[in-house]
Specification:
By secondary structure, this protein is of the alpha+beta class. It folds into 2 domains: 137 residues, 2,3-Dihydroxybiphenyl 1,2-Dioxygenase, domain 1 (Roll), CATH 3.10.180.10; 101 residues, 2,3-Dihydroxybiphenyl 1,2-Dioxygenase, domain 1 (Roll), CATH 3.10.180.10. Helix content is 23%, strand content 39%. It has 6 helices and 15 strands. The strands form 2 sheets. It has an 8-stranded mixed sheet. A 7-stranded mixed sheet has the order 2-3-1-4-7-6-5. Helix 1 packs antiparallel against helix 6. The protein starts with a strand and ends with a strand. This is Glyoxalase-like domain-containing protein.
Length: 262
């Protein structure tokens, strides 16, 4: 059984300002806009991070799930952790473990050669958890939410930005890490409050006393870190510049971006 961190979804009150920051700071391009999300009162973009993806959604109608989440959070922020299962059986087993843990299914969808199972964020506490399966079962290739294979023409020829992790803030990190571990069926290191996937880690940290659980951060492996930091300064995206550290933190769409060297 293998589970791949294939996509992170952020939510914003306005789409374009966030897209401008992401594309210019990280030198990445929009690869897909999904017309299907309009039925949920949303617009979106997807941007490739190597062979994985960053999505941003924004409400275009009132009283959508996304707009209610924005109101609850009080700002832009992280929205979904989207994992790719290596087989339909793996996806089905995760779904069964979620139901056994009394976690609700928020949304399910199945099309030819693809299926999605979204677990309710109130039960997962920090974010939607979406487990997807694609019939081609290729962690570097076909990805239905990004239009199949069309995204590849927008990919950087030499990968300079790669998705390597996410941070989820909550009231009890160890308990939530164990819940996610039990559902995903993969290990957790108690001391580190981490779940290791085949291409990255999910980290669980304690949120502030007045803060809701949320998808608080993304870790990116990058080349030419200093150039990215310089561009982030130009676009007002530096929230915590740590001189002499091997990690630099930016903030875009209410989300912390931690940069590590590729």
């Amino acid at each position: 059984m293998s589970i791949h961190l294939r996509q992170i979804c952020l939510v914003a009150a306005e789409l374009q300002p966030v897209v401008e920051q992401l594309t210019n700071v990280f030198d990445i391009k929009v690869c897909h806009r999904d017309p299907v999300v309009k039925q949920y009162g949303l617009e979106n973009v997807l941007l490739p991070l190597g062979t994985d993806f960053l999505e941003v959604v924004a409400p275009i109608e009132e009283n959508t799930a996304a707009s209610r989440y924005l109101n609850r959070l009080g700002r832009n922020g992280g929205y979904m952790v989207i994992l790719q299962a290596d087989s339909k059986d793996t996806q089905t087993a995760i779904r069964s473990r979620a139901l056994a843990a009394r976690v609700r299914i928020a949304h399910e969808e199945e099309r030819d050669g693809w299926s999605s199972c979204q677990l309710h964020p109130a039960d997962m506490e920090a974010a939607f958890l979406d487990i997807e399966w694609d019939a081609q079962e290729d962690f570097t290739g076909c990805w239905h939410p990004a239009g199949g294979l069309n995204w590849q023409q927008f990919r950087q020829k030499n990968t300079t930005v790669k998705l390597v992790g996410a941070q989820l803030n909550c009231s009890n990190p160890l308990a939530l890490a164990r819940l996610w571990r039990d559902i995903l069926g993969t290990g957790v290191e108690d001391a580190e409050r981490e779940i290791s996937l085949i291409n990255g880690k999910l980290r669980f940290a304690e949120c502030g006393s007045r803060e809701y659980g949320n998808l608080a951060g993304i870790t990116l492996g990058v080349k030419d870190k200093q150039r990215i930091i310089s561009l982030a300064h130009d676009y007002g995206c530096v929230s915590n510049f740590m001189t002499g550290s091997n990690q630099e933190e930016l903030e875009i769409c209410g989300t912390k971006f931690t940069l590590v060297d590729l």
